[in-house]
Amino acid sequence: MTESESATVDLEIIVQGAQEGKKLELRLWLRMLSTTKLVSQEIRRRLRNEFGATLPQFDLMAQLYRERDGLRLGELSKRTMVTNGNVTGLVERLETDGLVLRVTPDGDRRVTVAKLTEKGMVLFGAMATAHEGWLRDMMADVDPAIVTELWQDIGAVKSSVSNHLSGSDFD
Amino acid sequence: MTESESATVDLEIIVQGAQEGKKLELRLWLRMLSTTKLVSQEIRRRLRNEFGATLPQFDLMAQLYRERDGLRLGELSKRTMVTNGNVTGLVERLETDGLVLRVTPDGDRRVTVAKLTEKGMVLFGAMATAHEGWLRDMMADVDPAIVTELWQDIGAVKSSVSNHLSGSDFD
DNA sequence: GCCAAACCTTTGACATTTCAAATATCGTTC
DNA sequence: GAACGATATTTGAAATGTCAAAGGTTTGGC
User: How far in angstroms lies nucleotide C17's C1' from the CA of residue B69?
Assistant: First the structure.
């Protein structure tokens, strides 16, 4: 009986105005965070049980799956939002499992390009199909119109956040 | 420095590419995930720079701050969505820093209760104030009405997900 | 009272995560 | 063509994360 009374909250906002509104962003953030954790844990559990893979591995392979020619590790780092050093270890383990291949192009020896192997493509194909189904199942009770609306509005949040980051944007 | 203005990480576009056949739920999930990562990284960076604390430590202390009598480790684990073994280490490090105290009650020697110290309460108070401000700033461009709407709709998502978990409750 | 089941926490093996420092290579400049 | 700054990746230390197994401690049935 903790958070089923959103009507009460709305009333408070209307009545008290800016007072209560100050904590709106905090409450949204906490709810986003807990929901994301919940979904992540469920996906992690299923990836592990059904495919013996981890979520970061899945994310990384997803990037390589759409770029059949492979990606440089730095590019992988940006796309997965994972640090460089982390990508190194992830690719290393995936290579050990025969899912990914590392190549250094002739043109630039600083670069390492990671590519999915045939085995990696087959495995990821199966995981991706399952993954999409899991999400549909988990969100089955949400009105599709709401899903679309959420997608748009969260885009607005992301945009606002991107414009207010502290790191490296004051010239 | 060709990227001084494009430092914005728009994972979405890169990841999604042409978003043809992608299901709605999958797209929402990818956007939620990338947005949450973005905010988390920003909060992590600021906690580190301004308070020398980590995000998991902040989360754990937040729970103890609201329960001045302390919480059992299992309860902390549930509330922070962190595994038991992980809580053990987190509390251990916080105790080393003098922010948290561990007590075993007389009634049940299986139990360990963690409590914020005076030092811990002072530190958390400062962090919480800053934390709330950071979120307000980051979401400053989002219409408050949208924030409220998002809070409600994400609640619906969370509720749906909770009802479709494989792990523990189908009955 | 005893024993088995249930409960709470810790431990151990690994994987992931960040940051900073180190390495290696490339391009340009002089 | 040697040196310097920029670029790309790796490494290392410390923290966080999962899971499964192992420790102690109750608790309940007999």
Answer: 32
